[in-house]
């Protein structure tokens, strides 16, 4: 993290310190903004692989959102993220495991390399990052918020491995909630449905395929519209709030009714 020289004593012990992965765009960016705006004392470490989008995230709350370029799938990525947060702010209160990829492929189109990359980002990275953060989260009696997907609760033709990786995140959430409760750590998740984010662009699908995907999503969303990243971010901040201190192990759909429709 550029410009980091020891603990910022003016911040430590006052506002909560939040790490958000995948914070350059979409739900991650909206979540970083929501934490910074809801509590002026909070400090947010916005993590992502590209510097330019992270700078855009940080500009909205200068000084309260700190960009950190890091790859959570790299061997030293999780430890580097936690170390950077502790060196800058001296504590870690909330970890938001949001980074994810959603490459579209039918069953016949998957390759070992593609499956490995997807699982490394969507499943392995949250495990190793949460593991690296455990001592700090134990000290703060902190919160882990995982971002999964409502699709993990039903079938998604043409995107089965992505849906399976996120269903696994739901299982991690419930399992960690029980395992980490003696440490005073809460673990929760939000499961977004159809949300307006750049994730489809990053998946490399064309305009026609994206239009078909949106039509399918709308047909399976009772509220009849695409959600906004800020609506998911609101759910993340509410589940992580101190007032939710008796809530753990929950996976909250933010999906316009898609799961129950």
TrEMBL record:
Ketoreductase domain ranges (all copies): 16-198
PANTHER family named among the record's database cross-references: EG:BACR7A4.14 PROTEIN-RELATED, ZGC:101858
Species this protein is from: Kitasatospora purpeofusca
Pfam families: adh_short_C2 (PF13561)
Protein name: SDR family oxidoreductase
Regions that span the bilayer: none
Alphabetical list of SUPFAM superfamilies matching this protein: NAD(P)-binding Rossmann-fold domains (SSF51735)
Gene3D superfamilies assigned: NAD(P)-binding Rossmann-like Domain (3.40.50.720)
